[in-house]
Amino acid sequence: MSSQDIPEENLPAAQDHAHGSVSVADEETPFADPGMPPHEHRAQDIDERAAKRSERAVALLFTISMLATLGFIASYVTIPHDKSIFVFPIGHISALNFALGLTLGVALFCIGAGAVHWARTLMSDVEMVAERHPIAAEPSVRAQVFDDFRQGAAESGIGRRKLIRNTMFGALALVPLSGVMLLRDLGPLPHNSLRHTLWAKGKLLVNVNTNEPLRPEDVAVGSLTFARPEGLEETDEDFQDQIAKAALMIVRLLPNDIKDKQELAWSHEGIVAFSKICTHVGCPISLYEQQTHHVLCPCHQSTFDLSDGARVIFGPAGHALPQLRIGVNDEGYLEALGDFAEPVGPAFWERG
Ligand code: FES
């Protein structure tokens, strides 16, 4: 309905708002200013029932947004991450991702749609003229801005239309909960799982290349061998988590070359086993210099002396590589005599 369809007596009194001045072209201003078109009243300006309908529509959109946010939270908590559904024409997709995307999309869309509908149908639609002015605002201009803001707030009806105001605040307050819920993905807490590995008394040392348990005679002087604990398979669901802690490197030294007494006591016939995880930021160590018995981390060149308790002789690593105490079982295989005596990996532990 436009203002042309409404009897003259039902239209609101003419307002004082300027619609722009009309000017004709002359020599100084060669382009005529036609001024603003006549203002047309909206149905909501002249019909209280139409205004109420718009108010309810806006409140409904904000309410849907609140429900969608609650749906987002419910989906996140209840839908298993491995459940999939068929959605035409996309095909099979994750039910959790679909539900999270749909509910968050609806929540944000309804806030936007509610705000737009509110502005288009209920807030003042009088054309405003903003004159250009210098960038540095005069005190009087700042005062004018505050006055305009107060006037805009009054004209938006935010104080008078409590239903819209309350539902909007509710929608805006709830929608950040979606982000808060996603923080749950940072968990679960590791508790003390990072302080222990799969190594335990009696676990055989398995060669990662041959998948065979190692015997002392398999480890030659000057060679570098990598091992994992017996029972840990690449097909295990937590293989990466476990091997990141339990990866082991084995070297055979001449017993006389071992300077550190504890290292010698924890070795078997010169065979020593150390964590393969660099104590700087956790890269896997892979370079061995057999003449010097040094191992080198390729990430930042930390260097450890395997003949002297794997102490750091160069680079940013904070402490020596943890050693695994080993022995030989009745069948002649190399076995662990327990877990590492200290946590493996970066020096976080010294600060903890
Ligand atoms: S991770 Fe090994 S030196 Fe940085």
Automatic annotation (TrEMBL):
Give the UniProt keywords, A-Z: 2Fe-2S, Cell membrane, Disulfide bond, Electron transport, Iron, Iron-sulfur, Membrane, Metal-binding, Oxidoreductase, Respiratory chain, Transmembrane, Transmembrane helix, Transport
Protein name per its UniProtKB record: Cytochrome bc1 complex Rieske iron-sulfur subunit
Task: Please give the Pfam families that the UniProt record associates with this protein.
Answer: QcrA_N (PF19297), Rieske (PF00355)
Provide GO CC annotations from the record: plasma membrane
Locate the region Disordered. 1-46
This protein's species is Streptomyces seoulensis
Q: What is its main location?
A: membrane
For this UniProt entry, the molecular function terms from Gene Ontology, in alphabetical order, are: 2 iron, 2 sulfur cluster binding; metal ion binding; monooxygenase activity; oxidoreductase activity, acting on paired donors, with incorporation or reduction of molecular oxygen
- Which PANTHER family would you find in this protein's record? CYTOCHROME B-C1 COMPLEX SUBUNIT RIESKE, MITOCHONDRIAL (PTHR10134)
Record's function text = Iron-sulfur subunit of the cytochrome bc1 complex, an essential component of the respiratory electron transport chain required for ATP synthesis. The bc1 complex catalyzes the oxidation of menaquinol and the reduction of cytochrome c in the respiratory chain. The bc1 complex operates through a Q-cycle mechanism that couples electron transfer to generation of the proton gradient that drives ATP synthesis.
What family name appears in the similarity comment? Belongs to the Rieske iron-sulfur protein family.
Bilayer-spanning residue ranges: 58-79, 99-119, 163-183
